[in-house]
Design a protein that fits this description.
1 helix, mainly beta, about 45% strand, 9 strands, single chain
Length: about 140
Amino acid sequence: MVLLFNTVATDTATICIFDVGAMMHRVNDVGDWWSIPANELAEVQNGNALFLNLGTDGTYQLEIADEIDLNAVSFNLNTPSGRVFIGAGEEMSGGGFEPEGISGFFVEVREPNYRVFVSRDGQRISVKFVAAPASRNEVSQLIRL
């Protein structure tokens, strides 16, 4: 069952998922700090943000679901404020700005950490949050969907 559905357009071929509190340290960084692969990977490893590299710009249907494809990838996410943004990469915290939800939406969560499962079927991206004990990720490559 789909719990929340939204259409998001991205000009960066990237969907990001992050708690606004976990990314406060990047607000005053340059606006495109995350376009440097080492920066992006460091934030994913620390569990502060997930960057879903999609390969092409465009419009995507994002859904929060209570069931997800068995081929879903999953990553840990730190959620200190309980306010998670899911949307276009161009709304990532930086350049003195925080996301406004212009090309994305906010989800309220209760636990301090989640395992976030993500699957893609064409232009549809499904996301499922499951409470988890950890927020770090042992990854060495960027997330490609």
